[in-house]
Amino acid sequence: MIPVPPAIQRIPWKLIGILAGITGFGLLVLYSAAGGSWTPWALNQGVRFLVFLSVALVIGRFPIRIFEDFAYIAYIGVLVLLIAVELLGFVGGGSQRWLNLGFMNLQPSELMKVAIVIALARFYAQLPPGNTRTFTALWPALVMIGFPAALVMLQPDLGTALAICIGGVVVMFVSGLPFWWFGSAAAAGAAALPILFSFLHDYQQKRVLIFLDPESDPLGAGYHISQSKIAIGSGGIGGKGFLNGSQSHLDYLPEGHTDFIFATMAEEWGLIGGLALLFGFFLLLRWSTRVALKARTRFGQLTAAGLTMTIFFYIAINLMMVMGLAPVVGIPLPLFSYGGSSMLTIMTCVGIMLAIENDSKTGTRRFH
Amino acid sequence: MPRKKPPPITEAFRGITFTRRALVVGGAQAAVGVALAARMAYISVIDNDRYVLESESNRVNLTLIPPRRGWIVDRSGKALANNRVSLRIDIIPDRLHNKEMVLGQLQTLLRLDGDTMERINRDLKAASGFQPVAIKEDMTEAEYSSILVRLPELPGIAPQRGFARNYPTGAAVGHLIGYVGAPNAEEYQKVKDPLYITPGYKIGKDGLEKYFQDMLKGKPGARRVEVTARGKVVRDLSTQADVQGNTVHLTIDADLQEFVARRMGRESGAAVVIDCQNGDILSFVSMPSFDPNSFSDGISSSEYAWLRGDDHQPLINKATRGLYPPGSTLKPMAAIAAIEHGIDPSERHTCIGGYRLGSRFFRCLGRHGSVDMATAIMKSCNSYFYWVAHRLGYDAIAPTAKLMGLGEEFQLAGSNQRFGTIPDSAWKMKKYDQPWSASDSLNAVIGQGYVSVNPLQLAVMAARIASGRRLYPRLVNRHFKNEPLPFSAEALATARHGMDLVVNGPGGTAGRSKLPLDGIAMAGKTGTAQVRGLNTGNGKAGTWKFRDHGLFIGFAPVDNPRYATAVVIEHGMGGSRAAAPVAKDFMTFLFDREKAMEALTTFEAGWGGTIKERMDRDYAAWKAGASKPDPGLAQ
């Protein structure tokens, strides 16, 4: 038997397999969505994946200490970027979500999804255990979540604002804050829902209303959901076959290569394709949850749990949206949808969790 | 684990809490994942049938192909109405989102004038939902492709390569055939046929086109195509061809019809020619007319205003809707009635330039001296017929008039008739509650007073006198008995002889309208109908609207009648002057086409071209002058 060199052994092949599997499947769907062509989407997406995967593997080699040390600085930096985007939009006379970096459009709000988790993880890691049930454990976290969430809401980007909140709240939850705080917050939130609803933009309100009754406007704003359900439903168990999706190829399905790519896939690959993709995501989330459970430091635990939630949130909201269980909020399907920003976020999460995993292999655990 | 309240929070305890809560979060995530899988299975397995159907109805677009309309042909199979290939574009109002932008683009691309834009806007306002509004028909290939390439930027525009109705002789058949047009919202509501809202589908709106709609319409074809969400056709799936409508055969002689229409020149009037053998209507003309091609393509509002504003009333079919006092054209009929009531045709009456009835003196147009019946017809002597009417009373004459078809409404395909009045004492009592007077009889016998008839009836009368049979006019091959009239041979012969003399006798009123043919002569009777009351102006000059109508009935050849006719020239100032020459020329056409065409060519040179050329020029002149205050009344 040939001894495998340690350098090769240290590369997380299983994880790369999962990521490549999901992304590769996505490339096939993008190839089909372009009418059987590698351009303009599939090739771009493939190259981007390789670049971001390398970045993730490099990040995974960083000592976990670095993330903890730079957590606040990163958070503040991203917050500044968010404000900058807001100001640019204000100056440009319209809403703006991204900064043009030349090779890609960077959405600072995407970075914030990661930054908020790291910053809160650091906060709770440093919090003395005795203070867990005190007000000291609560208000800084709320402020840290509230600021960026409000800024993103102004853009307006409901989906990303929710993602930031969820990431932060999960970190708070797993850090051991009293259970009833969450319970009563959820109850209060439910009570305040109508008021929050009135703060939404017209088009956002419309999306929520359409979601509640998509058939009310099948050719207007309900069009996305109706067509998406038609695509998924008409796929059946085995799908219509590769390159044979009429909904996507004849343009009935809007955003068939980005937000609604799952419907494009389901039309051609059917329920089998859908379950396979879900299984792929399950493997990814199982890995990241295990990283969280096995993490050696409290910062690692909290970070991994929060980032797992961030990835999960993407998947869940996107799938609920395309299946008509959630309003159209414009959240892409991680690794699957065409687009750089979401992939960058996901791969950053994966990179950080790799670093946590590597860290847990190096020494003894401090807790348990 | 028993806990104090509050339990001490240690790092170890915090670690356990983390594990527990992380598992809670993971479990919740897994539950959501399972729910999503279940939802997907539900949509794609349980609801699969429904969504497959919806997906198919998205993908496949069933378009109806409007059927080609049946032709309308004349007695020899020559087309009076047929179809030609037409490139057209329409707007589907429901799919039109940015109206201003799209219309603006179309206006630039197709160089549509203000009239057309106005019509499109008017039609768009009246249109319902998916009912198409015609933008332009009969486009050139260049125009058509200029639209095709810009189709993605022009939502709501439907280009189509189809068929359009075509009337080769244009205005000559306007009143006879009618026209077709896109169904309006009400017509669609009535039948709910999706074909009615298919671009390019036309239904008969008037005349024979409307009457024979069911025969002409045919069966639509269907085309299943795969379309994108934006309506772009990706490929044809299957096509079922349309079935063309049935051909309608008319009794009309297309060449004669066109000749008569052209020969009417600039006059306003009607002319009907009937085959004396079977009642076939060979020509059915009312002029001026409209060009049914314009109507079928969607007439512009200014062209319609031009037609409506014309005091010669091109929109009214004068052959069936025009009522005129028949004047002296009734005299042969009165002669028959007289003989049937015992007056000897050789008995003479002396015309002293009029007839004295009590204290009133009824004038004759001349002083004809001693005349017998045939001579009285030839010279159109009023005195003689005053004398006859005074002797018999009009109640003796009216039944004969009715047997001749006067005052009768005929069962005639696609016509809308006003059938006028043949008065008698009962009629007057009913209508005016007054007894019939002798002077009423005198006025009626010379075709004035209460008498009014339409040109079709006059033609039927001529045909019945000529044939001696009760010919029933027909436009299609329907069977009628056409039994002999209950008149003696002597009566009919006297009337025919009198009519022969009118044209061919010495000093007949239509002597100038002898047929320029060897061995074929025409018989006839002129008539001049006063528009104003007697004695107010002479009706021979002055304002067009107050001039006398000119009428003529006739048949040819004299000895073996084959064709009978009636011509009415409104305000033509006399039958011999205006109506008889027209009849002469088209009767000549029936026997010698070349000779007749020569005459027509000369006339048309004087009038300024063919009907179409004149109409186009008049319309252009009218449009140029439309901004000025009402040029139509300037005369």
Structural class by sheet pairing and helices of chain B: alpha+beta
- Counting DSSP H or I runs of 4 or more residues, the number of helices of chain B is 24
Largest sheet: number of strands, sense, barrel closure of chain A: 2 strands, antiparallel
Tally of DSSP helical segments of chain A? 14
Question: How much beta of chain A, percentage-wise?
Answer: under 5%
What proportion of the residues of chain B form beta strands (DSSP E)? 15-25%
Q: Which features does this protein show?
A:
heterodimer, A: 368 residues, mainly alpha, two-stranded antiparallel sheet, 14 helices, 70% helix, B: 635 residues, alpha+beta, Penicillin-binding protein 2a (Domain 2), Beta-lactamase, 2 domains, five-stranded mixed sheet, five-stranded antiparallel sheet, elongated, disordered C terminus
How would you portray this structure in words?
The complex is a heterodimer of chains A (368) and B (635). Chain A is mostly helical. Chain A has one domain. Chain A is built from 14 helices and two strands; from the N terminus they run ααααββαααααααααα. In chain A, strands 1-2 form a two-stranded antiparallel ribbon. In chain A, strand 1 and strand 2 form a beta hairpin. In chain A, helix 4 packs across helix 5, helix 5 packs antiparallel against helix 13 and helix 12 runs parallel beside helix 14. The longest helix of chain A is centred in the C-terminal third of the chain and has 34 residues. The radius of gyration of chain A is 21 Å and the shape is globular. Chain B has 24 helices and 19 strands. Chain B is α+β, with helices and mostly antiparallel strands and 635 residues long. The longest helix of chain B has 36 residues. The C terminus of chain B is likely disordered. In chain B, helix 14 packs across helix 17. Chain B folds into two domains: 179 residues, Penicillin-binding protein 2a (Domain 2), CATH 3.90.1310; 363 residues, Beta-lactamase (3-Layer(aba) Sandwich). Chain B is elongated and about 150 Å long. In chain B, the strands form six sheets. In chain B, strands 2, 3, 4, 5 and 10 form a five-stranded mixed sheet that branches. In chain B, strands 12-11-19-18-17 form a five-stranded antiparallel sheet, with helices on both faces. Chains A and B meet through helix 7, helix 10, helix 12 and helix 13 of A and helix 1 and helix 2 of B.
